[in-house]
Structures are given as C-alpha cells and as structure tokens.
UniProtKB/TrEMBL annotation:
Ranges of biased composition (kind: Polar residues): 1-16
Coarse class of the protein's main subcellular location: membrane
Domain of life where this protein originates: Bacteria
CDD domains the UniProt entry points to: ABC_NikE_OppD_transporters
Subcellular location per the Swiss-Prot or TrEMBL entry: Cell membrane
Keywords: ATP-binding, Cell inner membrane, Cell membrane, Membrane, Nucleotide-binding, Translocase, Transport
Name used for this protein in its record: ABC-type glutathione transport system ATPase component
Stretch list, region Disordered: 1-22
Recorded family membership: Belongs to the ABC transporter superfamily.
Domain ABC transporter: 29-275
Xref: Pfam families: ABC_tran
The organism of origin for this protein: Streptomyces clavifer
Record's bilayer topology term: Peripheral membrane protein
C-alpha cells in the first residue's frame, strides 16, 4: 500500500475546495457555534462544511465532541436549552434562521432528512410500520391513501426488506434491529430528500447488518445523488462511505479534508490517536483498492 503522505502536502487544518457554481450546496454549515443556555457553556465552537448533491461528508470524534448537536442544528431541532450562537446553516441557499415553523416543516423530510441510532424510539409501537411510512408519503408528497400505501411498499422494497408487503403490516416489536433501521431509512427517504443525515445509524447493529445498511446508503447516493452526512465514532464506516471527513474534539474541528488524505496522512495528533485505536480493526479493508493505492 502506498502511503498518501507521498501524495499529499501537509497542512495543519485542511480545507476542501467547494463544488463549482453549477452545484450549489444542499447544506452549508458555516462556522456554527452552539451553546447551552443553562450552563452558558459553548459546546460546539465553529464547525463548517458544505454538502453538494451526491457528496458524503463524515463527522468523527470522541463521545460528547458535538457531532450530534451539529447535525441537530442543521436540522433545526436542537434540544430545548441549546441555541446556535454563531455562524449559519443554509439549506439550498436559504439561511434556516429566517425560516418560519411551517417553512421548516416543509423542508424537513423533503429536502433534508435524518436517521438516528435507536430506530425503535423514532417509530410508533402501536401503528404498523408501513402505515407510518405511508403517512409520511401522504403528507409530504400529497399522495392519496392507496397510492401512499403502494409507495410505502416500494420504499420497503428499496431498502431491501425481502417481504415488503409482510413488513408493511408489522409492528416494531415484530422486527429485528436491522429491519427497523431499514424501515427508518425508508421513512427518511420517503419524501425524496436531497440530503440525509445518518447519525450513528448503524452503531447498534451487528457487523453484517451494518455492512448491508452502509451498502444501501452508498447505493442511494449513487442512484439518486442523495447527499450524506455520516456521523460515526467508527472511522471504518466513514472510510467506507465518505469523500470528506471532519474530525471533532471538544466541540472543535481539529482536522478536515478528503477522507483518504485524513486517514492516511493525519496532521493532527488527535486524528492519529483515533486512527491508532482503529488500526486493530483493520481500517484499510474498508477503503477501496483505488483509495488504498
Ligand atoms: N439533550 C441534551 N441535554 C443535555 N446535554 C446534552 C444534550 N445533548 C447533548 N448534550 C451535551 O452536549 C455535548 C455534545 O453532545 P453531542 O451529543 O453533540 O456529542 P456527540 O459527539 O454526538 O457524542 P456521542 O458520540 O456520544 O453521540 C455533550 O457534552 C453532551 O453531554
């Protein structure tokens, strides 16, 4: 394997060339700062990245470094006592701070959507899972009940559930963790969003199911140009999916650049530490031969 350090000029904090004017970012996070109003502590201290169609950006870093809060800020759903105290988030060129709640409701799901860990807590246990997806389609796409049902079954098939008709009529307790995560992805893509935030979306799953879900996300990206933000404590997941990676520590981005450059030629001590921790899991097996050469 050739080390990327042989090809990459060292920089302390890398920045990545943004896409040309032909591809405006679906999501632009610019120097976002997030504070806890109660403790008056600044938790996220200046995160920036741009997500153009079909691109995948990974966010890695230790627990509590602010990955999830950054994603929640991008979705306009910060927990109650947190607020964005600096910078901006733009979706399709619109600063989300200027959006009214109905405008937000229209954007969420249809332009940007998300899948978090623990799917069971995002699905209603007393409603059949298919009906929950059909409801998203009905509300967001304006389809009639029968068409929405048909579309929901199609979505369950698209996330590679082997018997979508059967799954449509099942309740959460009847499904495995991997199946639930697929259902959640189906719900998240039901309104054809252009960007999907996957926050530790495969963490709770066993390795085989995790690999299947990652392949599914990669396929959605390839097929429909879905842009991805992938949050994971697992560098291998990010190596598998992302073009670009941000390494966060204590609310700050310590390194940002093309995934293979960051993983093969880390500039920051903390990134090196993260990579050393992952070495035992064989990070290189997740890089394609092209990337690893
Ligand atoms: N709902 C909340 N209430 C109180 N504190 C919170 C809440 N959400 C996040 N925090 C705090 O904000 C900080 C950043 O949390 P965040 O969830 O963004 O980290 P993370 O990098 O996603 O961590 P993890 O990998 O463990 O999910 C942490 O110190 C956390 O304790």
């Amino acid at each position: 394997m050739t080390l990327l350090s042989q090809h990459t000029a060292p920089e302390q904090t890398r920045t990545v060339a943004t896409a040309g004017p032909s591809a405006p970012p679906v999501l632009a996070v610019r120097d976002v700062r997030i504070s806890d109003r109660v403790t008056e502590r600044e938790i996220v201290r200046g995160v920036s990245f741009e997500l153009t169609p079909g691109k995948a950006v990974g966010i890695v870093g230790e627990s509590g470094s602010g990955k999830t809060l950054t994603c929640r800020a991008a979705l306009g759903i910060l927990p109650p006592h947190f607020e964005v105290t600096g910078g901006s988030v733009e979706i399709d060129g619109t600063d989300i701070a200027t959006l009214t709640p109905p405008q937000w409701a229209a954007l969420r799901g249809s332009t940007i959507s998300a899948v978090f860990q623990d799917p069971a807590s995002y699905l209603n246990p007393s409603i059949r899972v298919g009906a929950q997806i059909a409801e998203v389609v009905r509300v967001k796409k304006g389809l009639k009940r029968r068409e929405a049902r048909h579309r929901a079954v199609e979505l369950l098939r698209a996330v590679r559930l082997s018997d979508p008709e059967l799954v449509y009529g099942q309740y959460t307790y009847e499904l495995s963790g991997g199946m639930l995560q697929r259902v959640l992805i189906a719900a998240a893509i039901a309104a054809d969003p252009r960007a999907l935030i996957a926050d530790e979306a495969t963490t709770a799953l066993d390795v085989t199911v995790q690999a299947e879900i990652l392949d599914l996300l990669a396929e959605l990206r390839e097929r429909s140009g879905l842009a991805l933000v992938v949050v994971s404590h697992d560098l291998a997941v990010v190596a598998h999916l992302c073009d670009e990676v941000l390494v966060m520590r204590q609310g700050e981005v310590v390194e940002h650049g093309p995934t293979r450059a960051v993983l093969y030629d880390p500039q920051h001590e903390y990134t090196r530490l993260l990579i050393a921790e992952h070495d035992q899991y064989g990070l290189e097996k997740f890089l394609t031969p092209k990337e690893a050469s």
